[in-house]
């Protein structure tokens, strides 16, 4: 598909990380569910530092992209080991219960489908661009996406670590008080993520010029573009885990698959017409198009907040219009 034979060598080795993650202690999951964030965060930072240090050392030694793959494996292995040592709680051992296996496979089959859809939502733009653009342009886009997506990663981490446990312990369908507390957390996460993306849209170009040499300065324009494109997705991101918190993985999978289908179609059409700009436009447009599906699937849980969505939708559209106007004036030298 990409006509890059090296990918065929890198992919199966990088995939070993998934097998290593399967040996993580189950206390990691229970600690996240009960919002024991301090120890979990310290563990995650430690393993990331270990993996990053390994990547740096290997990069200096190997001078090859293999350094990134092997460093990633070191980080995954350190998490698998340290999660059994650092976290308190039940000590895992090898055992098999047929009833539990059937329960996991029944619930997990939808998670498997949703995970594929989630990958397409998160990585689909680069998968498409890898086919329709040059390798050089894809590299610039990857640099820009890496920088611009930092606020999104932080927001999604807060959704997983804070809002998801709130959904589980304080279901939105049980009381107005629960909905009020979760709405407050949702406003904090959404506003923080969008505000950070706004900052990146202003500092993207000088930031890239500071970090990289002249060969990569064109990535600065992509940082601005991607920052704007990622904003709409943050508005509805906190709804995605509501069905999962309610124990209905099938509904969660439907939501994820519908989002992946709409986003992929938008990016394919946009990319075929306008290249990189079209792919980014499709990424921005898709959350608006599948918003009715999101509302329909969360209505049952009384979790939809129309004021939240309308408010941030207007803010995003106004900010995008400001950037378009600014770019137009700059183009005509005004």
Number of strands: 0
* Residues in β-strands, percent: under 5%
Number of helices: 14
Query: How is the main sheet built?
Result: none
Shape: globular
Alpha-carbon Rg, integer: 21 Å
Q: Quote the average pLDDT.
A: 88
Low-confidence runs? none
Q: Separation of termini? A: 44 Å
Encode the helix/strand succession as letters.
Answer: HHHHHHHHHHHHHH
Helix content: over 70%
> What class would the helix/strand composition place it in?
mainly alpha
Features of the shown structure:
mainly alpha; single chain; globular; 334 residues; 0% strand
Task: Write up this protein.
With 334 residues, this protein is mostly helical. The chain contains 14 helices and no strands. It has helices spanning 5-14, 16-21, 26-33, 37-62, 66-86, 98-132, 135-148, 150-169, 176-211, 219-236, 242-245, 249-289, 291-298, 306-331. The protein is globular and about 65 Å long. The model has no long low-confidence stretch (mean pLDDT 88).
Summarize the structure.
This protein is 82% helix and 0% strand. By secondary structure, the chain is mainly α.
């Amino acid at each position: 598909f990409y006509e890059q034979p090296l990918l065929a060598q890198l992919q199966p080795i990088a995939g070993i990380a998934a097998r290593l993650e399967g040996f993580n202690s189950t206390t990691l999951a229970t600690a996240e569910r009960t919002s024991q964030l301090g120890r979990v965060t310290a563990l995650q930072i430690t393993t990331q530092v270990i993996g990053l240090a390994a990547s740096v050392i290997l990069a200096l030694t190997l001078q090859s992209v293999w350094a990134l793959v092997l460093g990633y494996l070191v980080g995954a292995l350190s998490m698998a080991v340290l999660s059994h040592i650092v976290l308190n709680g039940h000590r895992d051992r090898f055992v098999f219960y047929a009833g539990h296996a059937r329960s996991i496979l029944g619930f997990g089959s939808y998670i498997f489908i949703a995970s594929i859809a989630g990958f397409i939502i998160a990585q689909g733009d680069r998968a498409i661009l890898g086919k329709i653009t040059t390798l050089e342009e894809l590299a610039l886009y990857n640099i820009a996406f890496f920088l611009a997506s930092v606020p999104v990663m932080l927001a999604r981490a807060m959704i997983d670590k804070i809002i998801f446990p709130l959904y589980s312990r304080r279901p939105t369908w049980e009381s107005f008080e629960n909905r009020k507390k979760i709405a407050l957390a949702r406003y904090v996460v959404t506003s923080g993520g969008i505000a950070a993306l706004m900052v990146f849209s202003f500092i993207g170009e000088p930031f890239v010029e500071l970090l990289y040499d002249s060969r990569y300065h064109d990535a600065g324009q992509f940082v601005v573009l991607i920052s704007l494109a990622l904003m709409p997705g943050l508005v509805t991101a906190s709804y995605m885990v509501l069905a999962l918190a309610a124990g209905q993985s099938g509904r969660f999978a439907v939501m994820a698959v519908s989002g992946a289908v709409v986003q992929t179609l938008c990016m394919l059409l946009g990319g075929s017409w306008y290249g990189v700009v079209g792919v980014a436009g499709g990424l921005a447009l898709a959350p608006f198009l599948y918003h009715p599906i999101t509302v329909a699937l969360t209505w049952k849980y009384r979790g939809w907040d129309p004021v939240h969505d309308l408010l941030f939708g207007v803010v995003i559209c106004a900010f995008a219009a400001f950037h378009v106007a600014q770019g137009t004036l700059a183009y005509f030298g005004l």
